[in-house]
Specification:
The complex is a heterodimer of chains A (232) and B (874).
Chain A lengths: L6 E5 L3 H13 L3 E5 L2 H11 L3 E5 L7 H11 L4 E5 L5 H9 L3 E4 L4 H19 L6 E4 L2 E4 L4 E4 L2 E3 L3 H12 L4 E3 H9 L7 H15 L9 E4 L3 E4 L3
Parallel strand pairs in A: 1-2, 1-3, 3-4, 4-5
Antiparallel strand pairs in A: 6-7, 7-8, 8-9, 10-12, 11-12
Chain B lengths: L4 H16 L3 E6 L6 H15 L4 E5 L6 H8 L2 E2 L3 E5 L2 E5 L2 H7 L3 E4 L15 H10 L3 E7 L7 H8 L9 H6 L2 E5 L3 H9 L9 H29 L11 E5 L5 H16 L2 E8 L1 H4 L3 H17 L2 E6 L3 H11 L4 E5 L6 H5 L3 H8 L4 E5 L21 H22 L4 H19 L1 H19 L12 H49 L3 H16 L1 E8 L5 E6 L11 H10 L3 E2 L4 E5 L2 E7 L8 H67 L6 H32 L8 E4 H12 L8 E4 L5 E4 L1 H18 L6 E8 L2 E8 L22 H4 L5 H11 L4 E5 L5 E8 L15
Parallel strand pairs in B: 1-7, 1-8, 2-3, 2-6, 6-7, 9-10, 9-12, 10-11, 12-13, 20-22
Antiparallel strand pairs in B: 4-5, 14-15, 14-18, 16-17, 17-18, 19-21, 22-23, 23-25, 24-25
The chains are: A alpha/beta (232), B alpha/beta (874).
Chain lengths: 232, 874
């Protein structure tokens, strides 16, 4: 990893938003490349090869989904989409098309940085040759090698499906995984519409893993979008 | 000069009507045999061959002529309808067949033909009207002598009166008139050859030809004038002439009307036909009254505006009407016979002349078809009972007796008084005839008993002759006057009855709200008064007719009477068809269908119908305005609500913005002066206010979206625990240390929209947080109960005032302490909207021990999915 901060490509047409991002991100050691249009953004991505892309969904020339698809054609760079409309279909579609996470405006700088960190960490882990065999967050421990799950030291028995579900979320730990993605990764492309049944499994998982299933600590439900395994 | 807007509108309407109607082309000729039928078929044949037009021959009279028959062979023939009448089988136009076949063009010969009894219409031109109304073009033929207004002129020329006529209006409304002209010599040649049978002489033919040419020219002229009027070209004629024709029961009135029409046409003036109803006309025999109605009908057909006036003195009424309507010329008939009454006083014509002032009076004889004796005297309508005569005799006898008893033969004056008194009694009790008889008997009795020589009818003192004369005269005058009083009473009674009926309806109408109820009331009253079935029809500008309201079990014959209905609507005059009477309303027609349609032809009934129609029309107008006012009022209310929202929103958005701006500007401008602590505090303020502002905006957006119906609810079976947990995660940081206890079974599922319900729970949690002191607990529970799921969010705050438990969910409702806390008051409204959309209910109760418990229900419909669909992975 370079000693400089990671290079972030910000594709955003709102000047004030850029100002805020510029100020806060540079304060935290990130280097910035700015684009105000999608076309320019794509060009910059190709030219500069950033470590992370912050993509606004309301760009004038292309919609976020299109940009995500094009980027994903040749790059595995993490993409975080910024959406201004709470129930944006675009957001979910972008996630399904390969974006890593999302933020809904207005967001605070803390939220932004947290998501960025998660996204970058995944890249780092993916590029390193060592696979983390054990995943831990708070009282939850998942031993990927031994295929065992522990909550507060006690082993929890999961069905194969539940295990697969958990490990998918672990693989994307900290990032949101859409219903579609989950269904696809666990059951395959045929079942991508079975959201209701997914919930049943998630409910079972929650029962088994959460100290208080009503107040989930790990398995966060984001209605309309998907699930997220929350890191501290 | 600008074109008269009303006339223009009429033109436009006429154009529109024309578009839907078929085109009528009349092949017009001076006499039979000029070649109208032949010419018609030639034209139609051309269209058929060259343009491929769908032409059908409806009725063609070949009269055995060879060329005509040959041409006919080339057309598709519509089979004739056979009608049995008086033992003979007649061929008529099969109207229904034609309407079913619906060709583009149909050929119908002899427009003036009268149909056999049992046909739908009496006249063929009425059949043609129906065909035109159905959008079928018609070619037809007509001779000049069949034109209504020319009828008597032709009779004069040829010496033969023709029965079958076609109203001028039909001809005027025709789209095209083709004059088929043949020089008389040629025509006579054809007659000689036997091609045409005719009884005309050359002189006649010339005159007829001229008439036909004139009629055609008139039409061209009319078209040109219409063109000029539409283009606003200065009228060059004295357009201010208005003609009034006085008509009565006399058959000569018909001639008078035709003369009036010619005058009006010649002067290019409007004209009226007026009948005056006096007490005496009430007593006319039914045939005379029918003739008055016929004459009025004829006047309408000829294009006059008709009116029926009432009054004692006809001349006075006519003059008043004439002045009101700016009539310039009045046409009356010259009296046939001089009536004895006229010798003593002023005749009707004289009265008219005296009072006419600047109005010209024309007295014309008109041309007679046949001489009919005019009844000089009016016969009383009431038959005289025998009792009346007996009473007269009795009274005279009594008077005689009393005369002897009280006065004797010396006080003759007093005796005369007794007889006169007797006359008065008889006049009031027994009527006109008895009174006249009484008068005569009184004279005789007086002569016999009281004058010398006594007990004879001889008279010795010739002065007594005068006495006799005066007695007789007075007797008759008394009889006449009393009769007149009774007649006036009758007129008044009828008028009063009419008023009473109208009043009854008017009263009920004034209490009725709404357009349809008003129509219902109106129809009911008209039904009762006319003993008929009634309908209110609406007529669009396009001519489409719809039934707005009708009597039970009444299917108004709209299609059959379409022409009449549309005519009534545009001309704003009454018109009857064989089926019923149609009276104009503001945007439609009041249709009255009596069992005996003739009953409705009575002028009295027509006037009554008019009066009712006017009342109903006013009431409908009022009801319509009422409905509009209501709509406007609701709009105003909506406006007010909107402006309340705007001012509320304005305040609630500006307040956090103000804080943010203030704090941020201080941070920027006073940067050097601020301590770190201050800076942090200001920045915190800005951050907090963004949260508030965000909530405001979110609520407003949600409310707008929900109200505009832009939100679609996607229900899926989900876990309550999951959605509550999601809401809690989002709001956890803002709960200010309040502990939230969530008690929801993990397997409790219900069908709902996750995103929207998360919003509901979020709002309720935020609400609980806002109105309770810091650190107080909030409890969230959910359980299943009888086909629904109940979710409750309870706090330990001040609770909700008893009277606000419903209103609290209303838009913009704020509690008393809310001024400081801000918030447009939409949060709970949004919750209610979402819960309602799910089919559930939301409510709030106060908890025992203090605090508010908000709860909502979600109906459980259908079966929850088990994991079954998704296979277990091995």
């Amino acid at each position: 990893m370079s000693t400089q901060g990671p290079l972030v490509l910000v594709v955003e047409d709102e000047p004030q938003m850029l100002r805020f991002l510029r100020t806060s991100l540079t304060t935290h050691g990130y280097r910035l490349v700015e684009s105000t249009t999608a076309t320019d953004g794509l060009a910059q991505a190709t030219a500069r090869n950033p470590d992370l892309v912050l993509l606004d969904l309301g760009l004038p020339d292309l919609d976020g989904l299109e940009v995500t698809k094009r980027l994903r054609e040749w790059s595995r760079t993490p993409i975080i989409v910024l959406s201004a409309r709470g129930q944006d279909e675009d957001k979910i579609n972008a996630l399904d098309a390969g974006a890593d996470d999302y933020l809904t405006k207005p967001f605070s700088v803390g939220e932004l940085l947290a998501r960025m960190r998660v996204a970058l960490r995944h890249v780092a882990e993916a590029s390193s040759s060592v696979d983390e065999p054990v995943f831990t967050v708070d009282d939850l421990k998942v031993d990927l090698g031994a295929r065992q799950v522990f909550v507060a030291g006690n082993e929890v028995h999961l069905t194969p499906t539940e295990y697969r579900l958990l490990t998918t979320l672990v693989r994307h730990a900290g990032k949101v995984v859409t219903h579609r993605q989950l269904l696809k990764e666990v059951w395959g492309p045929t079942y991508v519409e079975h959201t209701q049944y997914l919930r049943v499994f998630m409910g079972q998982l929650r029962q088994k893993l959460e100290p208080d299933p009503a107040k989930p600590r790990y398995l966060i439900n984001e209605p309309g979008v998907g699930y997220r395994l929350k890191l501290r | 000069m600008r074109p008269d807007p009303d006339a223009l509108l009429e033109r436009v309407r006429a154009e529109e009507r024309k578009e839907k109607r078929g085109r009528l082309t009349i092949f017009f000729g001076a006499a039979p045999g000029v070649g109208k039928t032949f010419g018609m078929m030639q034209e139609a044949g051309f269209l058929r061959d060259v343009e491929g037009l769908d032409v059908v021959a409806g009725v063609i009279e070949t009269h055995g002529r060879f060329e005509t028959t040959t041409l006919l062979a080339g057309f598709e023939r519509l089979p004739r309808k056979k009608v049995q009448h008086a033992g003979i089988l007649l061929d008529e136009l099969d109207l229904d067949g034609a309407l079913t076949r619906k060709p583009r063009l149909i050929l119908v010969d002899e427009l003036a033909h009268t149909n056999a009894p049992g046909s739908r219409h009496t006249k063929r031109w009425e059949d043609v009207e129906e065909l035109l109304a159905a959008g079928i073009d018609v070619y037809t033929t007509l001779n000049v002598q069949h034109v209504e207004s020319l009828n008597d002129v032709v009779a004069q020329i040829t010496g033969v009166a023709v029965r079958e006529t076609v109203p001028d209006k039909v001809i005027d409304d025709a789209d095209d008139i083709k004059l088929v002209d043949l020089p008389p010599d040629e025509l006579l040649e054809r007659i000689r050859e036997g091609k045409v049978e005719s009884f005309f002489q050359k002189g006649n033919l010339l005159a007829l030809r001229e008439l036909a040419l004139r009629k055609t020219a008139e039409r061209v002229d009319a078209e040109m004038r219409a063109w000029r009027a539409a283009h606003g070209i200065e009228k060059t004629w004295a357009a201010t002439d208005r003609i009034l024709v006085c008509i009565g029961a006399s058959p000569y009135s018909a001639n008078l009307l035709r003369a009036g029409r010619r005058m009006a046409a010649g002067l290019r003036a409007e004209w009226f036909a007026v009948n005056v109803e006096t007490p005496s006309t009430l007593r006319l025999p039914p045939e005379d009254r029918a003739r008055i109605t016929q004459n009025l009908r004829l006047a309408e057909q000829l294009g006059a505006e008709t009116a029926t006036l009432t009054g004692e003195r006809p001349a006075e009424e006519i003059l008043r009407f004439a002045r009101e309507r700016n009539v310039t010329k009045i046409v009356v008939g010259k009296p046939r016979a001089v009536r004895w009454r006229d010798r003593f006083g002023t005749s009707f014509v004289d009265e008219l002349l005296l009072g006419s002032g600047e109005i010209d009076i024309f007295a014309t004889t008109g041309e007679a078809e046949k001489i009919e004796a005019v009844k000089p005297a009016k016969q009383p309508a009431r038959p005289q009972s025998i009792g009346g005569y007996a009473g007269a005799i009795l009274v005279v006898g009594t008077a005689t007796g009393l005369g002897f008893a009280f006065f004797g033969r010396n006080e003759l004056a007093d005796v005369v008084m007794l007889y006169l008194l007797g006359n008065v009694v008889v006049a009031t009790r027994f009527g006109f005839r008895a009174s006249v008889v009484c008068g005569v008997l009184s004279v005789l009795a007086f002569d016999f008993f009281f004058t010398q020589p006594y007990l004879t009818f001889a008279v010795s003192d010739l002065r007594h002759i005068v006495t006799f004369g005066v007695m007789l005269l007075v007797g008759v005058v008394i009889a006449t006057l009393t009769q007149r009083v009774r007649d006036q009473v009758e007129v008044a009674r009828k008028s009063e009855m009419r008023t009473a009926l109208l009043y009854a309806m008017s009263r009920e109408l004034s209490r009725t709200e709404g357009v349809i109820p008003v129509m219902r009331v109106g129809v009911r009253h008209v039904e009762r008064v006319f003993d008929a079935k009634v309908a209110v029809l609406a007529v669009e500008k396009s001519g489409a007719i719809a039934v707005e309201h009708a009597s039970d079990e009444l299917d108004p014959p709209i299609t059959a009477d379409t022409g009449v209905i549309q005519w009534v609507t545009s001309e704003r005059q009454n018109r009857s068809s064989t089926r019923g009477l149609y009276v104009p309303l503001p945007s439609g027609v009041l249709a009255i269908y009596a069992d005996d349609p003739k009953k409705l032809d009575d002028p009295e009934q027509q006037r009554l119908a008019d009066a009712f129609a006017t009342q109903i029309a006013t009431a409908i107008e009022r009801a319509r305005l009422g409905e509009e006012t209501e709509r406007a009022r609701m709009q105003v209310e909506a406006e007010q609500l909107r402006s309340t929202l705007l001012s509320s929103v304005s305040h609630d958005l500006r307040t956090p913005l103000a804080v943010m701006r203030g704090a941020a500007s201080t941070l920027v401008e006073d940067d050097e002066k601020l301590t770190n602590a201050s800076r942090r505090e200001l920045a915190s303020a800005v951050l907090e206010e963004t949260e508030r502002l965000e909530r405001q905006v979110r609520n407003l957006l949600d409310m707008t979206r929900l109200e505009s119906g832009a939100v679609k609810i996607v229900k899926e079976w989900q876990s309550l625990q999951e959605v509550i947990g999601a809401a809690w995660s989002r709001v956890e940081s803002r709960l200010g240390g309040r502990v939230v206890k969530i008690d929801v079974p993990g397997d409790l599922v219900a069908p709902f929209d996750g995103v929207l319900l998360e919003q509901v729970i979020l709002n309720l949690l935020e609400n609980a947080s806002k109105y309770t002191p810091e650190g107080t607990p909030i409890e969230v529970t959910a359980h299943k109960r009888a086909g629904e799921v109940i979710v409750e969010i309870a706090d330990r705050g001040p609770g909700v005032p008893k009277d606000e438990t419903d209103r609290i969910f209303d838009k913009f409702h704020r509690g008393p302490s809310e001024r400081t806390k801000g918030g447009v008051g939409l949060g709970l409204t949004i919750c209610r909207a979402i819960v309602s959309a799910h089919g559930g209910r939301i409510w709030v109760d106060n908890r025992p021990g203090g605090g508010a418990a908000f709860a909502f229900s979600l109906p459980l419909e259908g079966e929850p999915p088990t994991a079954g669909e998704l296979p277990e992975i091995t």
